[in-house]
Amino acid sequence: RGGGGSGPLVLPGKYSVTVTPQGGAAMKSEVTVGPDPRFQITEADRTARHAVVMSAYALQEQLGAARDAAQALSLQIAPIRQFLTAAGEGGKSALQTLENISPELTRVSGEIARALQAAARAESAIDSYPGLPTASQVRDLDWAWEDATKSVTELDRILREEMAAVYAALGPGSTWKEIAPAPIPVK
After folding, report:
1. 3-state secondary structure the chain
2. I need a surface site. Which of 125, 132, 138, 143 has the fewest CB within 10 A?
3. Which residues of the chain have pLDDT under 70?
């Protein structure tokens, strides 16, 4: 786990490591990571276990953009609602669209958060035990991937279709930046 961040442990092997201190020159070295001698696990099982851990980690990484897009849109809803309300009859149609989006966005944001939590739980549980993941853990992670794909697809539909109409109604001089759709998670 380099750089003070968190993430899955690496598999045993040789790695090239580069450290660049702020304002300094890059320092390179090779590091050999051996298997933990406390745990008796075959190389094949270690590799299979690592693949599942990396899948959970990848899902978390990929959902970050969707979480950020949903949060950014949530922050825009109230001020756009206020602007469209003040616009009177001219903003009525876009205001109705925005009112329909609000509960959808709340639901989708919750689904994205649940998928993130499921992936984090799976990664933590599997990474903290040296054996193979259970069938239940693998199934739960597969479901998290499915849920994430559906949720991000729904968020992107809201952004591409419904919010596009709202942004268009705000006019070309609008101060609100359009939120870009998030990439669909790829397993």
Report:
1. CHHHCCCCCCCCEEEEEEECCCCCCCEEEEEEECCCCCCCCCHHHHHHHHHHHHHHHHHHHHHHHHHHHHHHHHHHHHHHHHHHHHCHHHHHHHHHHHHHHHHHHHHHHHHHHHHHHHHHHHHHHHHCCCCCCCHHHHHHHHHHHHHHHHHHHHHHHHHHHHHHHHHHHHCCCCCCCCCCCCCCCCC
2. 143
3. 1-6
> Nearest-CA neighbor of 117 among 151, 89, 92, 88?
151
Token readout for 140 is: 């739960």
Closest C-alpha to 159, from 138, 124, 134, 184 = 184
Q: What is the pLDDT of residue 25?
A: 92
